[in-house]
Model the fold of this input.
Amino acid sequence: MSKKVFITGIDGQDGSYLSEFLLNKGYEVHGMVRRVSLEDPEHHLWRIKHILDKVKLHAASLESYPSIFKVVEQVKPDECYHLAAQSFVSYSFEDEFSTINTNINGTHFVLSAIKEKVPKCKFYFAASSEQFGMAKESPQNENTPFHPRSPYGISKVAGFHLTQNYREAYGLFACSGLLFNHESPRRGFEFVTRKITNAAAEIKLGLKAELRLGNLDAKRDWGFAGDYVEAMWMMLQQDAPDDYVIATGETHSVKEFIELAFDTVGLDWKKYVIVDDVLYRPAEVFILKGDYSKAEKKFGWKPKVNFKELVTMMVNADLERFKNMKKDICDAKD
Ligand code: GDD
Done:
């Protein structure tokens, strides 16, 4: 019989890549989505449109323990990947209460439901490099102290400790992946990488004149989401639960990302990018760089896609998308 997996946030970037990966491995894939997503699949489920007939979706909310409990009781998963969260750092400054409540309670609800109904189920928590925030050392590893700089970062630190506590207190096979920024053509448009690649494509095609951004000097360790979901799965296949940093070990500035993206479409970025103070964060994480040597040593994980490949992959995908949109409009007119 095939193993059952339960993914919260299956309709997000990571959920979509992870589902594809696990379907290929022969898992029976169940996912949790909000009711509104089932009612409006065109807008909410575009990332998993191509596998909708292969996965089973369940409506539940991170804000409701009974709804999560019911799905866990019904599915009885062998593995659970808890990816759902309010994940946009900027927004967490605007509505810190809902980010903190939803992210911390949501993680607690999933952990508790698993402890009650399927204590042998392996659990993965989507921890974040935002937990390091104003990092005390570089590169950051599993022993680097946390200094979160946003309500989002604080909520992830709490989720990380909850996961660790369920492991230590109740013996759950619970792991955290401290994932550094990971991107792809399926990235949400509010994140800086996608905002840039989307705008570079639009400007190239004459659909937009400028791109407004905040802090161009911030530096991140950017990898490809498709590589990172494999690490999530590998963590849960080890003999004992543990926490791992997943990163590329390289750091690049937002400016470098912009340069490369605009180079890809043959444009000079300086003519189009406008720095807007409104887009600066009240507290910034200036630089992140991860040390993934523990994951490499333990289960042989390393990133496959490099920075340049990632940027060009994203820009080309956006160009392609706009070209197809234009074509669809022309076809409809004919
Ligand atoms: N979003 C955004 N929009 N960021 C901008 C902009 C802008 O217009 N201009 C500059 N930036 C800078 C931000 O200030 C930040 O330093 C950097 O670009 C990256 O921002 P995001 O792409 O929004 O990602 P993030 O690093 O805050 O968080 C992402 O990665 C985390 C892993 O470390 C998110 O995916 C988190 O959910 C994830 O945990």
